[in-house]
Each structure stands twice: as structure tokens, then as C-alpha cells.
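User: For my dataset I need records formatted as: sequence, then C-alpha cells, nothing else. Please produce one.
Assistant:
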Amino acid sequence: MDDVTMKEMTFIPRSELNVREVFAQRAERLGYRIVESRAAFPDYLLEHEGDRIFAEAEFRTSNFHRHRHDLARCDLVIVWEHDLPTMPLPVLELKTDILHTKKRRGRPPGPASSTSSQWHRRRAFWARKTATTASTDTNTPDNTSVDPITRPGSD
């Protein structure tokens, strides 16, 4: 067993700051590149398989709701412990390294969670579809497309 694995096994986060430290250590192994780390919401701008996503780190999933974060400005919640039965956003639980995705009505049952790359491929598909629809929509001002990844007012 290498030193990194031993440290991961012995260090248990107790706060949001600790969760951010653990994520920074594991990001590359989990397939993420930290483009930007911020003090304000959302905590991260990440890159995964060429897609840019906004992520918020919390100790528990319930803290995301308690802090009343804007769901529209976040793509992923990174937590140590996923303690809610449902969440409208994908949740990366660092305690188990599982990406929990929201359940959709009308779809056949699947695994309780999926791999990170599966979720990001689906998200990229819908982002491209949304961008195509926006660019052909004549109701948008001056017929410009809206980038679904870079949200207005997220600076």
C-alpha cells in the first residue's frame, strides 16, 4: 500500500475545507482538472473530458440545501457524505468515490449511481443540444447562442 492510499484511509474530513483538501488530492485520479478554485459559490470551475463544469464542495449534501445555493449555477456537488435520498444535481461522494446521479421519471431502472464519465457524456450531449436550439431560436436577442456551460452572472 503506498503512502497516498494510507493517508486517504487515515484522514477523515470534518468540515467543508477538509472536503476541498481531499478533492484537491484526488481530483486527477477521479478524472477532474481544477481550472479555478474560489472562496465564493461555486467553489470550483473544473474540467472533465473537455467539458467545463461548476462544482460546489460541502461536508454533507444537506449543507448544500441549508446554504440555499442556486441550483442553476452549479453542475456538481462534491461531498464527503451524501446524506439525502434525492438530489437534483449529481453528487460526487468522496467517502466512497461514487458519483450519485439524480433519478429521472419514465426511464428504466439503472444502477444507483453511474461513473463520472457516463454522467459527463450525457451532460455534454444536452449542452450541445441546448446550444444548437438556442442558436436557431429567433426569440433570443440578436440571434446569438447561449453557452450552457458559462452561465450569465457567474463571474
